[in-house]
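G.,

No rush on this.
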Amino acid sequence: MTFHPVTERDVDPLRALLRDADLTLAGLDDPTVHLWIERDRTGSVIGSTGFEPSRDGTHALIRSVAVAPERRTVGAGSRLAMFALERAAGAGASCAWLFSRRSGPFWQKLGFTDADREHLAAALPETQQVRLFVRTGQLSNEVAWSRTLTDLAR
């Protein structure tokens, strides 16, 4: 299992994976968004993960964690999510946040707890997802989660 930083040529296959997973596509080509993909032996994108830091780097919005349908339920999602959490912690973030309306139990297994979406938006106002959700009025429909990253700091 090797994760590769997303390059310009990866953006379209990544969009397809995220669209199929019904995840947000905003800002995939923004340099502040750190994204990685996993490919299978044929070169197809079968997983993705990433984070977007707050301006001061102390918070990270975990995003774009997706797994191809045939790879679900075998731990691939947990490995992808933990990779992003470890990278965010390594970059100096002490708290991770995310939006997820459908995958609460998955995130709870990784240490996330319910969070206030307004607190998330206040901690990460410049991130692509927060700006999109505020602009479109979607923020009030979202479910927020958070966890500390102190156990992952090196």
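When you get to it, here's the other one too:
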Amino acid sequence: MSRSLPSTARASAERAGPRPQVPAYLRIAEEIRRDMDAGLLPPGSRLPAERMLAARFDVNRQTLRSALQQLREEGLVVTDKRGSFVADAEHPPPAGRRPAHLPVFPGGAGAGGARTDARLYLAGAPAALADLLAVDPGEPVLAHRHCTFGAMGEVLQEALTHFSPVAVDEIPELRRYRARLRGHQPDLRLLYHWMDRAGLRPAMRESITLSRRSARPAVRRLVRDGRGRVLEVTDLSFTPVWDELVFEYQGPGVTAARTAGRGPGS
């Protein structure tokens, strides 16, 4: 049974025509990412053999290899003579491709000159975000992962942003990035200025989740335009090594959004 799309999504679909089918390798890469996020494939663990993965997803070996290559380009998987592993300190990606787990909001250098890595790629829309992004679950959307690393190579901040088709359609800079994904280190520090320049009048809402089950707080940023359409959803996780965390943005005609939280032990 097909899911009824929001009216804005239906209107976009009518203008754009039939949606392209999600490539099999992108669906497989998304499934493997979910296994990582769920802890079924923890950092440093070895992935099942290619033939086993190909049988699990009912695809040929070449399609499976394309999915693994996608994960390697994101810095999530490392392959050597012994097989493929989830990236960690003992299995680091090649220089310039560090494990991508969450962002600063999105893009730019880390505080105090901390080392960062950013990746822009196509990913199947997670089912939990499909309605917000006005797409079908698994439909390819532009995604951005940004990591900040500490002095010992530990991940301090990790961010994952999903852009809606509306954002890509109406922001020329994102359209250009979308056309040249591979091998490019994106710089999205001017993203909200691009939104303003495109006349989208971005409005932001942030929520912070603190859980006893996890030592890493989570922050979600939801950005809508002046018509209420979602432009991006960013999920940020961080290691709380400071006492206060502040996110602030102010653009033409936009009220500054400020969120502050005290760290553990304060």
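The chain is about 25% helix and 25% strand. Confidence is low (pLDDT under 50) at residues 1-20, 96-105, 107-113, 250-266.

Enjoy the weekend,
O.
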